[in-house]
Amino acid sequence: MAKYNRILLKLSGEAMAGPQSFGIDPQRVCELAAEIASIAKEGVETGVVVGGGNIFRGIALAAKNMDRVTGDHMGMLATVINSLALSDALESIGANTRVMSAIEMHQVAEPYIRRRAIRHLEKGRIVIFAAGTSNPYFSTDTAATLRALEIKAQVIAKATKVDGVYDKDPMKHTDAVMYEQVSYTEVLTKGLGVMDSTSIAMCRDNALPILVFNLNTTGNIMRMVSGEPVGTLIS
To answer: Residue 78's pLDDT is what?
Structure first.
């Protein structure tokens, strides 16, 4: 029995790259698609936001001397590429999906319309929100928070490569301690770096919980929606 009826799953672009540091790893995308499809089959209405780092890292050097707005738009287009790859992998295993883009590109994706997105979710389709918010200076974390609030998701499931939120970087410090639960204010004041401060503040102001968990542990997405103790709850 699922704990959540509707979630917003936030994936980093790096999750699509698998063991590679950039690009799209077809096997990893298929594994992700299988896990996401499994929760949709259980009746969990699932929205997804994917970052673009795996693609944009490769062009970031070229964008270094560019205008910030141009660079951000390039990053948004990278998220569209990832969204299409994930949608294709989901459709290939029988899941129904819709890619909705904040930047209109009719031949590629539906334009993002809030009520239509909610209707897709109610019909059991996995909705992948692409192109961020369409505005520069906002991260995909902020886009995920905005979409989660708009579709009235019960939680933002933030998939990472570590088990949860730590008091310091567990990749650099062996004595790092993981929190089971932490407040929005603590995340902001201690600079815990889970998501950017704009998205944390938006979640705090709207009482939207964030669950940070390790995507690299197979089955964690299902455990998370089932209410098993996985990762760190920010509330």
So the answer is: 94
For the chain, domain boundaries: 6-234
Tell me the C-alpha distance between 24 and 20, whole Å.
8
DSSP 8-state assignment for residue 173: -
Residue type (1 letter), 71: G
Assign 216 to helix, strand or coil: coil
Q: Which fold has domain 6-234?
A: Carbamate kinase (3.40.1160)
pLDDT of 101 > 90? The answer is yes
DSSP 61-93: HHHTTS-HHHHHHHHHHHHHHHHHHHHHHHHHT
Q: How far is CA 122 from the centre of its chain?
A: 20
CB 100 within 8 A of CB 109: yes
- Helices (H), ranges, 93-139: 114-122
pLDDT one-digit tens code per residue, 160-196: 999 999 988 888 888 889 999 999 999 999 988 889 9
Evaluate whether 234 touches 183 at the Cβ level (below 8 Å): yes
The secondary element (H helix, E strand) that includes residue 146 is helix 140-150
